[in-house]
């Protein structure tokens, strides 16, 4: 493990070490871009070509930096990397790309080039030696050219039609993997727990008992919904994405939907807790209708009517059973 105290300060690096750091950074960036390309190749081939081209550009700059090092300092390049230098810009681990959206990966690549250019500019301004200042300025110019080259590659491989098509596929994948299971979970948690929670409330008039029943119902429904969603479809044929992600979305939102109107019963006064719980239920049902309208393109009034009607029927059943 590398501790902050063991890191070198950038201003303490020699010109040779700065050059070696630039070489290792270019090599790391090329690997990251190739990782992005591999991650996107199956679903977004045009964007994958852009990242492959960016990786080739990084390879070219790395070779140029190595040639410069050989000319000035010889064949032996010091082993120094980003993590060895305090305050040097960090990179997101490649494996985290699995959790990033297509647009977020594109933004990440832009940020990579922008951070490198900014760092070299700042370092050049603080450098005292004229040769070192020139070297850092050249490195900043290289990073700026990277951004221009990235835009050129996008124009070459990712025209407007291809980009729109890939964006549409990314949006559809987001809806299938996260929004649809999450919405189903929120509906299930918000509606299905109404009956046991309010039946317990009106039967006992005991807020603490009602809260415990609501907590158990919410957590149990969340676990059940999460496992059901994950086990129902591996995503290979349907294209709905990772069953783990879908299961998490469904399970978490189911639990949240139930806890929303269970938590008010932590208030010891029964009618105050019940009134707040009813307000929360109303907000939950309208939130579901809004999500259906925004992401699933369901007409708002129709979505609101379906959700509110279903919730009202379940609530009425719970209240009647509890009162009886």
From TrEMBL:
Q: Which UniProt keywords apply?
A: Coiled coil, Membrane, Transmembrane, Transmembrane helix
Where does the sequence pass through the membrane?
273-291, 303-322
The record, for SUPFAM superfamilies, names: Ferritin-like (SSF47240)
State a single Gene Ontology molecular function. Answer: oxidoreductase activity
Pfam families, alphabetically? Rubrerythrin
Under the heading InterPro entries, the entry gives: Ferritin-like (IPR012347), Ferritin-like_SF (IPR009078), Rr_diiron-bd_dom (IPR003251), UCP035918_rubreryth/DUF125 (IPR017040)
The question of whether Transmembrane is a record keyword is answered with yes
Q: Domain of life, per the record?
A: Bacteria
Where in this chain does the record put each Rubrerythrin diiron-binding domain? 17-153
Per the record, the coiled-coil ranges are 102-156
Can the keyword Transmembrane helix be found in this entry's annotation?
Answer: yes
**Can you say what this protein is called?**
Rubrerythrin
> What taxonomic ancestry is recorded?
Bacteria, Pseudomonadati, Pseudomonadota, Alphaproteobacteria, Rhodobacterales
């Amino acid at each position: 493990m590398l501790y902050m105290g063991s890191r070198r300060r950038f201003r303490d690096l020699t010109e040779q070490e700065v050059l070696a750091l630039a070489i290792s950074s270019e090599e790391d960036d090329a690997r990251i871009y190739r990782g992005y390309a591999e991650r996107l190749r199956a679903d977004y081939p045009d964007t994958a070509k852009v990242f492959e081209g960016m990786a080739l550009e990084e390879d070219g700059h790395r070779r140029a930096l190595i040639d410069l090092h050989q000319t000035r300092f010889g064949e032996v390049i010091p082993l120094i990397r980003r993590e060895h230098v305090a305050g040097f810009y960090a990179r997101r681990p490649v494996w985290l790309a699995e959790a990033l959206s297509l647009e977020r990966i594109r933004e990440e690549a832009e940020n990579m080039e922008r951070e490198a250019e900014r760092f070299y500019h700042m370092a050049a301004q603080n450098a005292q030696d004229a040769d070192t200042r020139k070297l850092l300025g050249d490195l900043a110019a290289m990073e700026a050219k990277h951004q221009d080259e990235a835009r050129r590659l996008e124009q070459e491989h990712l025209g407007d039609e291809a980009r729109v098509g890939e964006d549409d596929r990314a949006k559809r994948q987001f809806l299938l993997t996260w929004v649809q299971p999450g919405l189903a979970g929120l509906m299930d948690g918000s509606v299905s727990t109404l009956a046991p929670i309010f039946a317990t409330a009106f039967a006992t008039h005991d807020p603490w008992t009602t809260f415990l029943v609501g907590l158990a119902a919410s957590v149990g429904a969340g676990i059940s919904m999460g496992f059901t969603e994950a086990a129902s479809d591996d995503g290979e044929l349907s294209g709905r994405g990772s069953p783990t992600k879908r299961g998490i979305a469904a399970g978490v939102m189911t639990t949240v939907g139930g806890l929303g109107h269970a938590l008010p019963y932590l208030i010891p006064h029964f009618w105050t807790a019940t009134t707040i719980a009813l307000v929360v239920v109303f907000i939950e049902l309208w939130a579901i209708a809004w999500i259906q309208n925004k992401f699933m393109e369901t007409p708002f009034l129709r979505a609101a009517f379906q959700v509110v009607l279903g919730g009202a029927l379940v609530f009425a059943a719970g209240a009647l059973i509890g009162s009886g």
